[in-house]
Every structure is written in structure tokens, then in C-alpha cells.
Amino acid sequence: MSVPTAVATPLPVLGRDVTVPLVTGGEVTYAALDYAASAPALQRVWDDVAAYAPYYGSVHRGAGYLSQLSTDLFENARGTVAEFLGCRDEDQVVFTRSTTDSLNLLAAALPAGCRVFVFETEHHASLLPWRDADVTYLDAPRTPAQAVETLERALAAREPYGPALVCVTGASNVTGELWPVRELAAAAHAHGARIVLDAAQLAPHHPVSVRDLDVDWVAFSGHKLYAPFGSGVLAGRADWLREAEPYLAGGGASRSVSRRADGGVDVAWHDGAARHEAGSPNVIGAYAIASACKALTEAGFDTLVAREEYLIGKVREGLAEVPEVRVLSLFGDDAPRVGVLSFVVEGWNSSHFAAALSAEYGIGVRDGLFCAHPLVRTLLGSDPQTQGECGAPEAAPGEKSLNAIRVSFGAGTPDEHVERFVGAVKELVSEGARWNYRTEDGRCVPDTTSAAPAATAGTGA
After folding, report:
1. Which residue among 114, 371, 390, 444 is the active-site one?
2. What is the mean pLDDT of the chain?
3. Could you count the other beta carbons within 10 Å of the beta carbon of residue 204?
4. Beta-bridge partner residues of 405
């Protein structure tokens, strides 16, 4: 498989030259293939943050030069994010800590009597925040069309026919498959509901436009968008946010506070984004997100998508050559996806396999249920892994012990990382692990108490 020269170069990221030790001896450049959990920061983003750091100051109301500079930087970042997301003129951009924080903020802003509709396939960040609402959990669809049909039936049947919110991912954090967001938004609006898009896995890989997708809100995290940890965004319609109590009460969210005659206090809250940004904001986090938005836009999503599809093709073709590997999918092998794939290997516990990839090849992947337990349990319902194997997760009474392996990559991934990964999978399946492994604190780790190589492969503990 060849790739056009225009898309042959990954974007520079931090850690691209980091070497890690191998349990079998020597060192190797670390292959970071866990982008779906946290992508490495773009070098461009880190450089921008470093250049700003000496001018760091408190924002809003500060009279000093650094405070004024930081305030401009913070508010300009809001505008950059709004442009990156294709927001409507009247939309608000609220800076949060993460996607999870963003969706919990929205959950706290739901109007009285609002019903929430969410597929069981969602990441826990989208599945769990709606604790104070009447929630309808929808079964996993097997086609995009079935997803739309399932949602339409549920919305039409709701009783009473009041305010409703649909929460849906743009791309699965387990399978990487793209969801029919525009069609789901149309279905929601046709039945008098609103929709929030969890773009945590979509925004780093594909352009996201609030206006074009016709979603009401979008949420994402900086640490998946090639920015450092600790920042996120909720962007979209202002009315529910304006009418809700502040997400946090404190300075910055309040416009004025005065004492009453009875000794209490009266508070007038801000109406804009500041209403839900109480406390000193994470200026560097907001600036880093804005820098990442600019970097991805300037690199061009057409180019980024073309390169990623090339890498996806290399991984899928390589895994298809290993009969023992089963790639997980909701919508089928041909469904479009971002650079996220999960799989299981016959004869292996997934934690053991992931540990061997790390210890013997310097490859970082993820194993487990990926904070999407209902979805992974649905996909692996017929593939239990025996408890007691190295790193096998404990199961609740009456449940099977299940886990899978996830490989994920993006704009900073060089060809060599995915080639090494595919080669390592083939070698582990055909020849087995070269080291013994044991369970420690619930994780499968190399057994460093013995220098002897593994006698057998696959399920050895």
C-alpha cells in the first residue's frame, strides 16, 4: 500500500523520540498507540504554551499588563474554538475540564421534566451524567440506519411529550466507527428534542461543524485533541445554560453580590459563558486547545484524514492476515471509522497480550473495557476469557470476565509504529511471548523475579 507524498509525514508531537527499555534487553523508540485515551501534545501546541508561560497572569479585571494580555488570550481562545467548531453566531463556548465535565455541566442545566435518550454504546462520560433525569437507554444498533430508526421510535413514544435531549458519540471510542450524527440530529429535531454530540473521538480526526451537523451542543477534551491535560469545551445553544443555576458557585460566575436586610446575600449571576466558569480559569488549558485547533486547521483535515485512512488500511490488512484475531465492530468491517480499533486474540487474555506488546516491543496500547462497559460486553458476549489468567479482570457474580485490546493512532503516528504493531501481533500469535508474566495489582506485568523466557505462549500466567 502506498501513500501520496502530501500525506506521508506525521505532525510533530512531544515524545516522538522517547526510548523505553525492553524486558528482553535493549531499548526502542516508544510507539504510542493509545491516542483514544490521550493523544500526545503537538509540538506546535507545546511551543505556543512555552512562549506564553512567562506572560502568565490572572484573567478578567486585572489592571496589570500581564492580566490584560492573559484575558485577551483567554477570550480569543474562545473565538478560535468557536470558529474551529463552526458554531452559530449566538452559540456559547464554555471552557471546562474535560468531555466528562462538559456533559455533567449540561446535565445540571437540563430543564425540568427533560427526558434523556442515550445508546448503551456510549462512553461512560456520555452514559452516566444524567443521574437526575429520566433516562432511556437504547440498545446497540447494528447499522447506522437502525440507530436512526431506534431513536425515532423512542422519541415518538415518549410520554409525556416534553423537553428531551439525545446524547450521541461522533465516533466510537471502542470500534472507531463513525455515527450518523447529521441524521440523528434531524430525527431529534423532528421529534422536538435537542442533541449533544460527544466529539471526544471525532474532533481530533475529522472536521466538526455545529452548524453543518445541526447539533445543539458539542463536547470534547483537549487531551485527545493534541493539547495537554486539564481542559475541555462545551459549545452550543445558550438558552438552557443561561437559565440554569451556575455549575459552580463562586467568583467569576457572579456579576454582583450584596447583603440583604435579613443578613443574607443576593447574587446576580452572569448570563454568558462566565456563568459556568466560576473560579480562576485554566488559561493555559484554553490557550492550548485553541493552539491545537489552529494547528489542525492549518494542517488541513483533508490531508490528515487521507493519512489516517492509509494507516487504518495498514492495520486492518495486517490484522486480517492473522486468523486468530477478531476485530470488534457494530456496523460491519466496511463501516467508515477513525484510527481506533479494538480486537481480541484467540487463545490469549487481552491484558496478557497488551503487556507483551509493551514489555517486548515498546508498544503502548490499551486493554480492558475502555470506559464503555455495556458496549464491550455486547461485542464480546460470546467470547469470555477465563478468570485466573494473567491480568484477567474480575467479573461480578454471574458475569463473564471480558476484556479486549485497543490500538489507536492519529496525526502524530509514523508508519513505523503501526508496522511494528502489526509485526508484533503476528509474532506473538505465531511464536508466543518471550517472557513470563504475572498479575500485580490487577495488571499483567513481566515477571522480573526470573530471567527465564516464557516456556509457553498465550494464556500463561
Report:
1. 371
2. 92
3. 28
4. 343, 367
Cell of 58: 490572572
What integer is the mean pLDDT of 47-76? 93
Is 371 known to be catalytic? yes
Q: Cell triple for residue 17?
A: 523520540
Taking CA atoms, 318 is separated from 29, 254, 401, 422, in Å, by 21, 56, 27, 6
Reading the block at residue 229, the C-alpha cell is 491535560
Contact 32, 14 (CB under 8 A): no
Secondary structure (DSSP) of 253-310? TEEEEEE-TTS-EEEEE-SSGGGG--SS--HHHHHHHHHHHHHHHHH-HHHHHHHHHH
Taking the C-alpha atoms of residue 225 and residue 36, their distance in angstroms, rounded to an integer, is 10
| SS3 category, 149 | helix
Q: Is the pLDDT at 62 greater than 90, yes or no?
A: no
User: What pLDDT, on the 0 to 100 scale, is given for residue 441?
Assistant: 86
Return the residue matching grid coordinates 466558569: 277
pTM check: above 0.90: yes
- The rounded distance, in Å, linking the Cα atoms of 190 and 179 is 18
Nearest in space to 216 (alpha carbons), one of 302, 335, 113, 111 = 111
CA distances to 37, 38, 97, 126, 229 from 289, in Å: 17, 14, 11, 21, 10
